[in-house]
Amino acid sequence: MGLVETQAIILQTFKLADADKIAVFMTEKAGLVRGVAHGARRLKSRFGAGLEPFTVVRVSYFEKESRELVTLKEAEIVKSYFGAARDADVVQALGYLAELVKEFAPPRQSDEKLYRMLRASIDAAARNPELLQPITIYAELWALKLTGLLADARACAGCGRRPKEVGGGACVSNEGVVRCHACRQGGWQAVTAGLHGLLCEMHSNGPEVWARSCLKVSHEERQTLSGLARRLVLRALEREPRSAKVSTRLPQTAAGAGGEQGI
C-alpha cells in the first residue's frame, strides 16, 4: 500500500505507551483513518501541535493492507483553530461533529463530500460561535444525507412532485423518507413549508449561510428541526451520542449572509 499523502482533519487522539499517540483523522482522499504517531508525546516531537483536535493538516503516513493502524510520518498544519479552542461551547460542539463523522464514516473509504462538510462546519462554527446550534443541525442533516439515512427533500418519495406544488410543507418518516402531505403515512413527522425549504436549501448553501437562514424561522420550528435531526441520528446509532450536549446559544437576529456555496 505504501506512503499516502493527503489533507486531513484531526478528530481525536489517545495516549499510547510512554511517548506515542493514536490519532483518528478524517482525510480528503482516504476517508476515516486511525494511525500511530510515534514520539508524538515527546517535548520535541516532529508533530508539534499538528495533532491537536480539529486542526487541518497535510498528513503523510504508511499503511499496510493487513494492519488496521497506519504509521504517521508527518502532520503539517494547514489551518488551526487554537483561538476557538478557548470557547468551551465551541469545543463541545466541534467534539459532537467529530463524533458524528467517526460514527458515520466507513473506515478507509473516500468520502470527499463528508470531508468538505466537516471542514466547512468547523470553519463556520469557529468564526460564528453564536451559530452553533443551527450549524450542528446542518452537520447532522448532511451526515444523515451522505450516508443514505435522509432522503432528498426536493421531491416527494411517493408521487415525485415538489411538496410546494401540492400545498407546501412535507412529512418525514422515522427512516428519513420525505413525502408531501398528500402522500404521508401515519406517524410521520410533519414539517412546515419553512422547514421544508431549509431541507432543500442545504443542497445549495454552506453551513454559515444555511445557519443564518435557519435563524429566520421561529424558535419552535428550529426545535422541531433539531429534534427531527437528532431522532434520525439516534435511530441510526441506536444510542445517544456521547457528545450530544451541544450549545443552544442563538443570536436574537440574523446577520447578513455571504456567498458561501453548498457541499
Brief write-up:
This protein is of the alpha+beta class and 263 residues long.
Q: How would you portray this structure in words?
A:
This protein is α+β, with helices and mostly antiparallel strands. The chain has two domains: 2-79, OB fold (Dihydrolipoamide Acetyltransferase, E2P); 86-237, de novo design (two linked rop proteins) (Up-down Bundle). Helices cover 32% and strands 21% of the residues. The protein is built from six helices and eight strands. The strands form two sheets. The protein has a five-stranded mixed beta barrel with strand order 1-2-3-5-4. A hairpin with a 3-residue loop joins strand 1 and strand 2 (20-27). Helix 1 (88-104) runs antiparallel to helix 2, helix 1 runs parallel beside helix 3 and helix 3 (132-146) packs across helix 5. It is elongated and about 65 Å long. The model is unreliable at 247-259 (pLDDT under 50).
For the largest beta-sheet, the strand count, sense and barrel status come to:
5 strands, mixed, barrel
Q: How many beta-strand runs?
A: 8
Number of domains: 2
Give the topology string: H per helix, E per strand. Answer: EEEEEHHHEEEHHH
The CATH architecture designation of the largest domain is Up-down Bundle
Q: What is the CATH fold-level name of the largest domain?
A: de novo design (two linked rop proteins)
How does the overall form come out from the CA principal axes?
elongated
Oligomer: single chain
Low confidence ranges: 247-259
Spatially, the strands of the biggest sheet line up as: 1-2-3-5-4
| Approximate helicity band | 25-40%
Q: How much β-strand is present in the residues?
A: 15-25%
Terminal Cα span: 30 Å
Number of helices: 6
Round the mean pLDDT to the nearest integer and report it: 89
| Content-based structural category | alpha+beta
How much is the radius of gyration in Å?
20 Å
